[in-house]
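Example record

Each entry pairs one chain with its bound ligand, zinc ion.
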Amino acid sequence: MRFDLVVRNGRVVDGDEVLEADVGISEGVVAALGPGLGPGDAEIEAGGRYVIPGGVDSHVHLGQVSSMGDVTADDFWTGSRSAVHGGTTTIVPFAAQHRGLSVLEVLHDALERARQQATVDFAFHVIITDWARAEPELRQAAGLGIVGVKVYLTYDRLKLDGSQILAVMAAARDLGLTVMVHAEDDAMVTAGRERAIAAGELGARGHAASHSRSAELAGVTAAIALAEEAGTALYLAHISTPEAVAVATGGRARGLDVTVETCPHYLLLDESLLDQPIETAAPFMSSPPVRGSSERAGLLAALARGEIDIVASDHSPYTMEQKLPDGAATSFTRVANGLPGVELRLPLLYSACVASSVLSITDFVRLISTNPAKACGLYPRKGSLAPGADADLVVWSEEARTVDYDALHDAVGYTPYEGMELTGWPEVVIARGEVLVAEGSDATSRGRGKFVARLAPAGERG
Ligand code: DUC
Ligand code: ZN
Ligand code: ZN
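Structure tokens for the complex follow.
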């Protein structure tokens, strides 16, 4: 059998298996997997390197207005190009319904921009901040194939109250949508912010003190109780503490369908980075904030036990000008929140966990590709290399390289990981059978990415 492209002699990672095999690709999908395939019109020699499904990043902010009114520096073009250079071939950004807006209008607008700009395939979550306005439109939005909704327990511009969240969860359950929750207790965050301001702690530590470990724990506990009450599948975004993971694990033991996400910054960055003047600390400021060594050790242990499902980037691309609107005099209350990370997500996790033998290569693939695809209802089209799946794959090199912002592709202007030595980088990245990134070549282009609709309802993970 002749293929369009054969990736030869890889160690192919799919599910729990690592196969010494070739991957035969035709018309953008995996056509065959096995030894001695071929020939191909084009061939790539993997030379015994791992061949993994392309990354699925289920949490990225692109072309979006934030909780503080900032527009992300990356749009769907720069963000998706950055993603694919880092081995991610599917992105799941947000269409954000700010108050008073129509969900369908913001969704159509975001879909249109993504169709024109994205170089890799994309799905969408919809952020709901105005339930009265969203309710009559949600069924139609679900019919368009969105993954699900995101709700916030905190942030004045975004938050819903408990009864609204219950109503969103009940509607999402009936429509087969995932409910992603930003779970930090609003009263605790607000009181912490007031305390920090009163104490004159206006730097990065003041921000971290207000987004405390207990605020996350209280938020996660509430989100789980609400999801159990509503009988909804729950996706906990950006979990930063092992205590919150333990609460989720308890919910899972009671039968709750809960997906736990953490992010590379919680695995690699230490809160001591916040003990600097705000102009130096700003690149490391996110919500929830980066924590201490005991949290990192606890998250690694939870990863090793399989209690964390997904490592997503929470790519939040804000420039230094957006982070520091008042320069060195900026108070933490004015700093745009979040870290960029879509391009380094795979190398960061591989370095932190696989190179150090905390996780196996199959664990790694589950965390960066298969599980996010399942949680978003995109599996097995995405997150798999089984015949019939989209031919999104990465030839993975185990070389060590030093992070240099100038080699990245986002529009942020810095990386919080500058100078880190990372082991494990994408060498060749193929999306729907097209070689988009290879040594010294870049075939990315605007508008080649396609919208991928949710295939399976939440709760049925393929
Ligand atoms: N929540 C996110 O999901 N991302 C960035 C900051 C935030 O608060
Ligand atoms: Zn969030
Ligand atoms: Zn986010």
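The chain has two domains: 3-53+383-442, 55-375.
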